[in-house]
Amino acid sequence: MFFILCAQFVHFGNAQARKYVNEFLHLGVGGRQLGMGKAGVASVDDVYAGYWNPSCLPQIKDNLQVGFMHNFYFQNIANYDYLAIAAKSGENSAFGFSLVRFGVDGILNTLDLIRNGEIDYNRVTQFSAVDYAFIPSFGSEQRMIRNYNMVFAWGASAKIIHRKVGEFARAWGFGIDGSVKLEDYNKKWGITLVMRDMTSTFNNWSFEFKQSQKDILYLTGNTIPQNSLEVGLPRFCLGGYRRLANDKFFGLGEVNLDLTTDGKRNTLISSSFLSADARIGLEGGIKNEEKHFQFSLRTGVYNFQKETKQNGKFGMTVQPTVGVGLQLEQLNIDYALAGFGAGGSGLYSNIISVRFNINKTK
Asked: Helix, strand or coil for residue 126?
């Protein structure tokens, strides 16, 4: 049924496969993962797995978890919010629901500023460009004992997307993600494959402008957009982690390789067929399991890009991140800082996320 519906959209719409479709869904969520340079698909084990890797959902340690993140994106030019809930649905399975909102508010609308040759600033209004995603997820795992003491897990997520630009444009879209994971039973290491938009993601755009607004767009040399179907091609993420720990200290390293299939990008590995970008993260800290206390320091790099530097030489830049985390009883607080360094935009992003752990009372 799903593929029949996709075929109908392609047949009746003006379908176009484009780069950077629904990029707000690839910015990353959670202070832990963003503090580690977006390296988190393999080691995530909490409510944020609904976004990063649904096959990790069964690893949540509590009956119910609620998570919230706010990202002061580019020094609050945009606001990026994430709200999620995850719960056990059996001994070896769990489900989650995530809500993503990315918005730029207070954009000035000057299309009606000039009317009949007269300027009237009272006709200047404001609008918002807002993107939403509603993501139900499910994950299941099974212990493999016969030959190896390992755990195999799988998961899937459906994405319902709504994008709105003031009163001028709106879109509804959908897509499906899937993932598999293989992990040591003692959680010393793990590898995973996350398949985002594995069926491709479809956004059906509709536009509405007044005739006077169309005239302004035409006179100022702007193209008047037409209703169309936008297609986002599949992308994949390979990830692996290694953990070291004792009673008081812990450390973790993770490497992710983000693979895109929408054409050549300015990434670490770039080709017309496949482009790949690396994400590397480190985490370490102290813990006291009896008191449910943990303090973490994190750092990472991502966004490897080739560019011409001020000395005229061609070189590679990266985007560094740093972060801290604190666990106190049933509350986790994580903070990350991004947007600085040679590969940054010069505009900082401050990310704060929290997680509440809820368990049944005996």
From this structure: strand
